[in-house]
Structures are given as structure tokens and as C-alpha cells.
Amino acid sequence: MTRFEHFILAGSASVALLLAAQPAAQAKTIGPTGAAIVGGVAGVAVGAAIADAAKPKKKKIVYPNYQPPYQPGGYNPYFNQAYSPEGGVVCYPAQRLCYNNGGAVNGTWTRRAFGY
Amino acid sequence: MTMTTILRNAGAALVIGLAATMAQAQADDDFRIDDAWRAALENTDGILNDKQMAVINTIAYAASAALLCDGIDIDPDKVATATTAVLADGPQDLTEEEQLERYTNIMLMLGTAKGILLAEGALHKDAFCASASKEKADVQSANFWK
């Protein structure tokens, strides 16, 4: 597959992940043989990815110029860092997500805080 | 006042104070399931940059709200566009195998975030759905709902 086909396939897969009604339509566009091949390749990748989660020393593909924002073994203090951009809202940089006090994600502040 | 009355009043005040403190603590809690997020994210830091990760988490949040809350539906076109942009904007010159590994990790991150957010939302559904509905009604707010 070309990279473009990968993008389309992966983008479609993400929607299928979110919408239970979508997988049948996606399978039709790929075709049964292609879907089986893609499924086999993806299955290997999923298995490896899940295994990697249990073996963090394996290679991880990171974005260009990534520098870990914490020292080795220092994830906990980093993970628990938080700040409040306004009353009742808490943002977690390690998670790139903001919450409202009282129990809900704050999408508006998540966008403002993390730049999209 | 008698000593008994004083003690009774002091006890009542203590209970009221304790209840108020507990209510304040409840209001101050964002109900994030910290340990689940820590376990999910520790080994994935760096796969996505800040913006990409916020997008993926917000898609996961939108999906969990759509599943839990009445009147909220995912917009598949918005999700596909945003996800494809995240997938396309990765390191250059990856092998096909590395490319697939990266995509797979991102999809797993999306699914994991969705699962944790579903749990958080389900535990405090009224607050979760009220907040999502308010956000959806805000015309200034960009989101992944129809």
C-alpha cells in the first residue's frame, strides 16, 4: 500500500472505531480479499503494539525533535502536574486534556490550552 | 446553655462542617481516573505532539459523550478529517512497517482514551452530559459532534 492508501485506511478505521454502524461499509470499499490481507497486517501491528505497552524499552516512533519532558523514572511527578486556567477548570499537560471540577471534560479549554 | 446542649450543638456544627467540607471536596474533584490515565499514557508520550494528542483525546471525549448522552451524535466527516491529519503529520522517511506501527499506536491511544472517558462519564453521567450539551450548544466551540 502507498502512504496515501494507509492514510485513508487508517482514517476510515478511526471512524469505524467510533461508529458501530460503519465497519460493514468500510469492508465493502476495501473488498473481502484486501480486507483479509489488511486485517492480517493490522492484526500483527496491534498485537505488537499491545505487547510493546508491556515492554516500554522497545522502540517507539516519536514525533520529530521530541524531548521527554521528564527524567527517567520521573513520570509520576510530571503526570500529576496540573494548572487551573480559570476557576473550576483543571488542565493536565501530560494528558493534554482539561477537566471541569465536578466531573466532565472541558473541550473548550482543551483546545485553548493545547493549541488546535 | 447546659454542657449537654453545648456538646450537642458542637457535635451538630461538626457534622455540618464535615458535610460542607465533603461537598466542597466533591465540587473540587474533576473525577479523573488518574491511575488509568497514567498507565495508558506513560509509554505513549512522544508519539503525538501536544496538538495532535489534544485532538485525539477530544475525539475520544466526543465519542464517549455521543454514546452516553442523549442528543449528541458524532460527526464522522469531522472525525475522519481530523484523524487523517494527525496520521499524515508524522516523522518523514518511515518504513511501511514503522508507519503501520505508528498508526496502530495512535488508534490504540484513541480507543484507550475513549474507554477511560466512557468510564469517567458513566460514573458522573449527569455532570458529564450537562457539560457536553452546554459545549455543543456553544456556537463558538469547535467540536466533533453533528
Which features would summarize this protein structure in a list?
heterodimer; A: 116 residues; mainly alpha; 2 domains; 3-stranded antiparallel sheet; 52% helix; 9% strand; extended; B: 146 residues; globular
- Summed up, the domain count of chain A is 2
How many β strands of chain B by DSSP? 0
Give the low-confidence spans of chain B: 14-26
**Uncertain parts of chain A:** 20-28
Largest protein-protein interface: A-B, 59 and 76 residues
The overall strand count of chain A is 3
Amino-to-carboxy terminus distance of chain B: 64 Å
Number of helices of chain A: 5
Mean pLDDT of chain A equals 74
| Element string of chain A (H = helix, E = strand) | HHHHEEEH
What gross morphology of chain B would you assign? Answer: globular
The residue fraction in helices of chain A comes out at 40-55%
| Major β-sheet profile of chain A | 3 strands, antiparallel
Oligomeric grouping of the chains: heterodimer
Shape of chain A: extended
> Main beta sheet of chain B: strand number and arrangement?
none
Measured distance between first and last alpha carbons of chain A = 30 Å
Count of discrete domains of chain B: 2
Derived from helix and strand composition plus strand pairing, the structural class of chain A reads mainly alpha
Chain-wise SSE layout:
The complex is a heterodimer of chains A (116) and B (146).
Chain A: H1 3-18, H2 23-30, H3 32-54, H4 75-79, E1 89-92, E2 97-100, E3 104-105, H5 107-114
Antiparallel strand pairs in A: 1-2, 2-3
Chain B: H1 3-28, H2 34-41, H3 50-68, H4 76-88, H5 96-123, H6 125-137
